[in-house]
Design a protein that fits this description.
The chain is α+β, with helices and mostly antiparallel strands and 243 residues long. It has 10 helices and 9 strands.
Length: 243
């Protein structure tokens, strides 16, 4: 009887071994998994230049930075704020225009520096700046007009001056950028910020949907292709031009 009990115990022990090994492997895998917080914050361990070089939506900008020699600046200490045009923003210029720009290092450097601001400005800080400027201008206008009736009606009808919700940032090109924030949407000149607050070790990146062209730089922007009128057969069987 004892032999039978010992035999059963040995069999049960052998059957339990695979489950113990599996549990140990699963436990090791769980122990080495990267926490979600670390995955989300990986960009915070990269410089601006390094991040742009890794983002598949910024490959044309990365190429331009390499050609212009601006990489060392954006890989340096900073902090900087970069308004980064997406690939689609470069595509909107047209291939011929981009090729021409790449072949003109001085113009290319000026254009890229026009997208970089010395200092770190998040979307929240830009919004706060625009709001503060609006308040300051409204207070100045109120003092000058002493609370005139026209100012009251203008405010009620939403007829505030467009510049009242704007602020300016000075770029590395020496030119100012108008930035504004309305209903949570941040604008840089005529470009919209599509992705905000990508944090890097030496500043912050905002992706925008247009390439910003500084004053004094002339680019031949390729116009959108016009649809060529197509020929089609009308109801009478005659071939005509579709307008």
């Amino acid at each position: 009887m004892r032999r039978w009990i010992m035999l059963c115990a040995c069999i049960l022990a052998l059957l339990a071994m695979p489950f113990a090994v599996t549990a140990a492997v699963i436990g090791d895998e769980n122990a080495t998994e990267t926490p979600m917080g670390e995955i989300e914050n990986q960009t915070a361990n990269m410089t601006i230049a390094a991040y742009i070089g890794e983002d598949e939506n910024l490959t044309r900008l990365a190429e331009a930075i390499a050609v212009s020699g601006l990489y060392d600046t954006l890989n340096g200490e900073g902090p900087y704020t970069v308004f980064a045009p997406s690939n689609e923003a470069f595509d909107a210029l047209g291939n011929e225009t981009v090729t021409q720009l790449m072949a003109e290092p001085d113009n290319l450097t000026m254009v890229l520096q026009y997208h970089v601001v010395d200092g770190e400005y998040t979307a929240a800080s830009i919004t706060e700046m625009a709001g503060n400027q609006t308040g300051d201008q409204n207070q100045t206008a109120g003092n000058e007009s002493e609370g005139g009736v026209l100012d009251i009606f203008s405010g009620l009808l939403g007829m505030d001056n467009e510049s009242e919700n704007m602020s300016t940032l000075t770029t590395l090109a020496g030119e100012d950028l108008n930035v504004s924030a309305t209903n949570g949407e941040v604008m840089v000149e005529e470009a919209a910020v599509t992705v905000a607050d990508i944090n890097a070790t030496n500043g912050v990146i905002h992706i925008i949907d247009q390439v910003l062209i500084p004053p004094g730089v002339n680019l031949t922007v390729t116009e959108n292709e016009t649809v060529t009128p197509e020929t089609a057969e009308n109801e009478t069987g005659m071939v005509g031009v579709v307008q």
